[in-house]
Structure formats: C-alpha cells, structure tokens
C-alpha cells in the first residue's frame, strides 16, 4: 500500500512541478510582461520617493 501511494505521489508530484515550472517560465517570458519586469528591474535605481512630487 505504501509503495503504491509513494509511487503515485512521486509521479504526479513530478508532473505538477514540471507544469508549475513551465507556467512560471511562460509568464516570465511572455512579451506583454516585459514592461512590468523592466520597471521592477529599475526600481532600486530610482532615487526619489513617489510622495516627493
């Protein structure tokens, strides 16, 4: 019984994590998200606070 459940969990766990990785990769490389990621990459370089206007 334990061996069957262990095998099932390992197989479906691997499938789940591969699927999650592919979804995260697609999200990161999706062309529509480029501007969001570029803005986030430049945030540490911005000197002024948003409330300083």
Provide a descriptive summary of the structure in words.
It is a single chain. With 53 residues, the protein is mostly helical. Helix content is 70%, strand content 0%. It is built from two helices and no strands. The protein has helices at 2-29, 34-42.
**How much helix, percentage-wise, in residues?**
55-70%
**Content-based structural category:** mainly alpha
Distance between the terminal alpha carbons, to the nearest Å?
A: 66 Å
Mean pLDDT: 89
In percent terms, what proportion of residues is strand? under 5%
Topology pattern, helix = H, strand = E: HH
Largest sheet: none
- What's the oligomerization state? single chain
Poorly predicted segments:
none
Tally of DSSP β-strands: 0
Structure, briefly:
This protein has 2 helices and no strands. The chain has helices at about 1-30, 35-40.
């Amino acid at each position: 019984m334990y061996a069957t459940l262990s095998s099932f969990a390992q197989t479906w766990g691997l499938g789940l994590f591969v699927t999650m990785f592919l979804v995260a990769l697609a999200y990161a490389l999706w062309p529509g998200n480029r501007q969001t990621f570029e803005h986030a990459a430049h945030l540490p370089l911005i000197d002024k606070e948003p409330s300083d206007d």
